[in-house]
Amino acid sequence: MQGVFICVNPDSVSGTVTLPADTPTENATFTLQYSCDPNVDQPCPNNAAAYTIWQGSINVQIIGCGPKITSVSPAGWWAGQKQDITITGNCFLTPTDTGGPSKVTVSDGANAVTLSNVSVISSTQITATVHVTKDAPADPAETANLTVTNTSSSGAPQSATANPAPVVLPVPVIKWRGKKISGNGAKNQSVIVGQPVELTTLPASLPGGFTISKSTWDMDGTTIKQYHEDDDTGISVDETDLDTQDTTFYWLYPDTGLNVTYEYCATDPSNIQMCTSPQAKTTFKATEPNISLTTTEPYDKGKVNELAVCGQKAKRAVMFYGNLNYPPGQCSGAYVGPPGINLAASGASAGNYVFVQVVQMDTLTWHGPAPYSCGPYQVVLDGHYPFRGVYPNAPSVAYDGPAMTLPSKYTSGERDFDATMYLLWKPDQLSGTGTASIPVPIGYQEWYFVATTDQKLPIGNGKWTKPNTTAHGDIGGYQASQATDNAVYGYPEWNGVSDIASCTP
Amino acid sequence: MLKKNFRRTLLIVMLTFAFHMLRAQGDLQYTPHPNDTYPTFSLTLKAKAPEFRVGSLVRITITQTNLTKHEIDCTEEWTGIDSSYQYEATDEDGKPAEEKPRGTGAFDVHNCSIPPGGSSDNSVLVDRIFKFDRPGKYVIRVSRREVDLKDEKGEPLVVWSNPITITITG
């Protein structure tokens, strides 16, 4: 470096030397040289040519700039990984600088972070490798102190600490029912199908202006977030949220080894997203009682009975699948007698069975001088969700005995009825949660009833023959529901509610 | 001897119990209560919504509440609506709403009972009964027959629900 000095008096000169801003603290020797240039100075003393008149040196101590850190990249460090970092700033001491190289240290509250391979590339750049153990805390997540220190043989060391501090991005943790269920020592979990699995995660938030900008779940098995039912529009399901920090879902079918994983992306204050998150993993077993549906026929044929009509003396003839009638003296209310078919659920000692019957095909035909027919009614909900034909004192048994009115103006009547009874099962509410369980598909049984009856002569007397039952009972065997059965994972589907009220023979 | 008698008695009791269980699941049954005080139940009516568009499904819920100290009947005769109820709708002028042709060509019997103090809900599409094809307000109420209580003529006494008003919009 050079400076301009002027002769103040024969004994002294003064001037200014400007040092570069990044001149570190160091000892230095200044050499002053006074030269005469006859082209500048007139004349040089003794009329000499340009020559050095005087030269001397002094030793000075330069108090230089301390290290400054302008950024650390990346600003977030993933736990369980090694990553190379770059520290940018100025006044770093390289190995060739006096007192160099600058020292770099890192510390955190959990002693989870270590540094290696520190290399001061230049006065403005340092590289290193950071290793964060898997034990870096997630609740809450922490920051790390990164410090660059310049030492001096002739003065106090000067240091700078990175601000903002690098953020330690922890291994995520999955929690269920208030407990951590992922990570070292975590045990496999068990839940009953249809019970809510409400999972939360750590970290819940990040320090240093970082945000959890993306969450990703993955889970084995068939899960849904929620199911909805409406008599008129059917059953629909909401898919499980796989992109939220916390998620709630239900398994619909039993299985073991159901892995659930979670990872996240973090975004720093400069809007740089980092997505190499380690994974949190847990494993569930979803259980279900061994439930089945058994079909029996208390009365396995058609039967014509005469029913009292309130306010009228005349009775009405009705063909049943079964042998049903009002109790003697009644014209409304409960029926008595054996229905045509029973479908009994068994196997669960807790929870509730839910029956849903879908009419696959129903046709009614009356023959005579002015024949009339209704239907076919197809894939419609038989009455309500759930099916109301359940024994009051045995709610695990559904029954049915479809009935066909026989107006006396017709010569014969025929009913062709085909339905599927679906069995769902709703477990008891999971203890410790206020979230309700949902019914899950278990299985189904198709059944049918086809019968014809003729009015005895003379037509109009209202007396009918013993029905000719050509088909009755179950079709095939009981089928267990499967997630691949349909678009709603095996729940029953239907198109509106059966409307046999529109049938006016 | 005493031991043998006890075993035989126990066997008879168990067989009787098993018979009744089987019978309970093979036969629909009803226990009459002819000495009850009228009414044995109340009916509360609610609409799924206060307004419905012309041509839409008009669904109401009927809640039957047991007022006695024993089980009562809530049997449904399903014909596409619950025909165990009788339905009434009047327009803004107090005139009966026009009814659709409705038959009982086919029906399903769903026996039902309500425990003492309990309730049973049933929902019905009344647009299957009435032609709500003109915008305006309609007052709806339903009734249900007592099973065991009859009038002087021997006809079942009837219990009415509260009236509700729905608005059909264009």
Layout of helices and strands:
The complex is a heterodimer of chains A (505) and B (170).
Chain A: E1 3-9, E2 12-17, E3 26-36, E4 51-62, E5 68-73, E6 76-78, E7 81-90, E8 103-107, E9 113-122, E10 125-132, E11 145-150, E12 158-161, E13 167-169, E14 173-176, E15 179-180, E16 189-192, E17 197-202, E18 211-219, E19 223-224, E20 226-230, E21 234-238, E22 247-251, E23 255-267, E24 273-274, E25 280-287, E26 292-296, E27 302-307, E28 316-321, E29 341-346, E30 352-367, E31 372-377, E32 380-381, E33 390-391, E34 394-400, E35 403-405, E36 412-426, E37 440-454, E38 468-480
Parallel strand pairs in A: 6-13, 16-25
Antiparallel strand pairs in A: 1-2, 3-4, 5-7, 7-10, 8-11, 9-10, 11-12, 14-15, 14-17, 17-22, 18-23, 19-22, 20-21, 23-24, 23-25, 26-29, 27-28, 28-35, 29-34, 30-31, 30-32, 30-36, 33-34, 36-37, 37-38
Chain B: H1 2-26, E1 41-47, E2 51-53, E3 59-66, E4 72-73, E5 76-78, E6 85-90, E7 106-110, E8 113-114, E9 119-125, E10 136-150, E11 156-160, E12 164-169
Parallel strand pairs in B: 2-12
Antiparallel strand pairs in B: 1-3, 3-9, 4-8, 5-7, 6-10, 10-11, 10-12
Structure keywords:
heterodimer, A: 505 residues, mainly beta, 6-stranded antiparallel sheet, 5-stranded antiparallel sheet, 51% strand, rod-shaped, B: 170 residues, Immunoglobulin-like, 5-stranded mixed sheet, 3-stranded antiparallel sheet, 1 helix, 15% helix, elongated
Category from helices, strands and their pairing of chain A: mainly beta
Secondary-structure-based class of chain B equals mainly beta
Any idea of the CATH class of the largest domain in chain B? Mainly Beta
Average pLDDT for all residues of chain B = 88
Structure overview:
The complex is a heterodimer of chains A (505) and B (170). Chain A is an all-beta fold and 505 residues long. Helix content of chain A is 0%, strand content 51%. In chain A, strand 27 and strand 28 (316-321) form a beta hairpin. The model of chain A has no long low-confidence stretch (mean pLDDT 91). Chain B is mainly beta and 170 residues long. Chain B has two domains: 1-30; 33-169, Immunoglobulin-like, CATH 2.60.40.2970. Helices cover 15% and strands 41% of the residues of chain B. In chain B, the strands form four sheets. In chain B, strands 2, 6, 10, 11 and 12 form a five-stranded mixed beta sheet that branches. In chain B, strands 1-3-9 form a three-stranded antiparallel beta sheet, with no helix packed on it. In chain B, strands 4-8 form a two-stranded antiparallel sheet. The radius of gyration of chain B is 22 Å and the shape is elongated. At the A-B interface, strand 30, strand 33, strand 34 and strand 35 of A face helix 1, strand 7, strand 9 and strand 10 of B.
